[in-house]
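Task: fold both queries, return tokens.
Query 1:
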Amino acid sequence: MKLTKKIRRTILAIEVALIVVLTPGIIAASDHDDGEVDIKGRTVNLTDLYVYREKDQNSSAADGDLVLTMNSNPRSLARYQYYFSTTALYQFHITQVGDVNSTPTGRADIILRFAFSPPNNQGMQAVAITVVRGGSETTTKTTVNGGLIATTPLNSNSVLNTVPVGGSNLTVFAGLREDPFFFDVEQFFRVRAGALGTGPKVGFRDPSKAIDFTKGYNVNTIAVRVPKAFLQAGTGANTFDVWTTTSVRDGVGGFKQLDRLARPAINEGLVITPSLMEAFNSISPKLDLSAAAAPVRQEAVATLKALDLLDGKQNVDPNAIAQAFLPDVMRIDTTKTSGYASATNAQGSLIGGRLLLDNVIDITLGALVGSPVTENVSYNGTPGNPAQGHKPLEPNFPYLALPN
């Protein structure tokens, strides 16, 4: 039990460390927005992954359905239509897990792949969905009614596509939605600087002054309602590992992976060197523990050793990274209530997936210092503080609030 608690603190401490950089004066947020390079524009930049039992988001939903939500294109401004890349593949990768306590394999048993056409004169993009499952690959472009699978244009009712695949019906939404992530990033960096001795020691701002850096921004959302039986594919698995990737054409007939995302707040905080960050984003989770990824792990360990966060104590055992954090996937045990901190396995790893309103920052900070901590930003915001607060979530799938 002592080991489990230690590993739990380690994994959560790592996730906090993942949203800061070691070098003073360099500010990065989280894998919510890890920046653009010449070959990686905003449209293929992943922001967040949410995985949950739909009934835990909506008590009226059918039992047995899961919702997978992939957000990309950070900092999309209000009142503008943003399109999915027409040269990229957006993919959910899913592993069927037989033992909830097992180390993630990073092997994809199922892939849900999305490709988008150029927008028409109504701002709609046609969508081709490819499912890779059980060694077979199926591509479909039409709904159960024979119409094209399509995105939702700005200022339009949600287009919910019912897509028949492999004997099941998936419900697919793709379009612009308000970014549900919330965090007072600026003040966190001040708190961090004080903890590291590179600035004055300060606390988090009180609720009336705390600022949510995602307020007013939108993201491109792909949300899929999928029956658990479809993911089980006859295996009887009740636990799944999920991660997302974006890939673009490599110029020689294939695709090159540019970004990947599973847990909230990943990679650029621990991995400082741009080339190593790019390498981390370009590999599969199954390679996270490989010899080839050793330089990435070494830099992450060096960053962790340098961090004394909030309480002035070293709360992270860098040697526990491989056991507690890698391979980087989001695990969900569907026999338990969904939620980022709702359940752990025998190793202390989080296995509850992630709901839209989970306060992943407060959960992580509190676990790190061993007592409740909040940076005083919430999804709904604080009355009288116009610098935070999101629109109400929609009552039905895809649940995210309408775009700004």
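Query 1 returned. Query 2:
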Amino acid sequence: MKKGKKKLKGMTLIEMIITIAVLAMLCVILAMVGANIDATTRATNNLKDKIVKESPYAANRGKSFYDRDNQPVEFATELGTISISIDGHFDFGEDSYPDPKVDLDIIKYDTEQIALDGRSAAERKVILEGPNSGINFRFIDFPTPEDESDEEPAEEPAE
């Protein structure tokens, strides 16, 4: 009887190279996904920060804020008109109005200065040119008779 050699069990060199190549591709894909998640998280945090800083001024109809040096800064405003019309007719009780239309005077203002106040040049660049940079909150206010009087800037923030 002839005794055969025991066959060694293990991986060949080609199998090892293929395994390393597959693992390398998976690592590259994982790194790209991680970088995308990081960029998305930063952009989301910048947008959230912008909303947190700017929305109280819009909610309170504030037209100015105090900057880092406690100097009042007026928001950039623009006057405009909104036209609202209904095609057809509008019935109100016994009265009928063909093609009613109304023009409303508005004040459009931009609170981006709040988000930029006190930021470094690099942070300003990210806000102005980075992800979500095209998102700038512009608010519309309908002037009322009290708005025509001179208003004081919003109160100084508590420190």
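Both queries returned. Flag for query 2: The longest strand covers residues 76-85.
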